[in-house]
Design a protein that fits this description.
Length: 159
């Protein structure tokens, strides 16, 4: 396991060109303790940007496609007369379950919880919870299919 500035990287991981992995410890007067945990066998394609200001966990066997953005923090905009970059960060942990696939250009935002075995479509924006073995697409991401272990098939999602 590689550890550097609160970034923990497991074994057999692939991080391609121009990927940016970072933790945040301070934003203005705000003291933070960002931790990024990347488990074994995770692959990041080129141009990914991953930011942790609290705790961001990517479990074993995940594939993160090119140009994906994953962050457990976002800029506050509570004071409309103040520059967003001078406002506090809103921070909420992010979790991506084992063997999930995040499609090209997707954004996984603060507070997102993606279960294991999920597929997130290209350019999707994930803000909430995606249950295990689901396919989610769109802006904001909506579940369209779930895997049925009785029939061994992906089936149309019905709420």
């Amino acid at each position: 396991i590689l550890r550097q500035k609160n970034i923990y990287i497991g074994n057999n991981c692939w991080i391609y060109k121009n990927a940016r992995l970072e933790t945040v410890s301070k934003w203005g007067a705000q003291q933070l303790h960002g931790e990024l945990h990347i488990k074994d066998g995770v692959s990041f394609e080129q141009g990914c940007h991953i930011v942790a200001a609290s705790k961001l966990v990517i479990e074993e066997g995940c594939t993160i496609s090119a140009n994906v953005y994953i962050s457990d923090c976002g800029h506050s905009h509570e004071k409309p007369n103040q520059d967003v970059m001078k406002q506090e960060l809103n921070v909420k942990s992010v979790y991506i379950g084992k063997n999930s696939f995040i499609g090209y250009g997707a954004c996984v935002l603060s507070g997102a919880h993606i279960g294991q075995g999920c597929i997130i479509g290209a350019n999707a924006v994930v803000k909430g919870t995606i249950p295990d073995y689901s396919i989610a697409v769109g802006v904001p991401a909506k579940i369209i299919k779930q895997y049925n272990f009785t029939t061994n098939q992906w089936e149309k999602y019905t709420e």
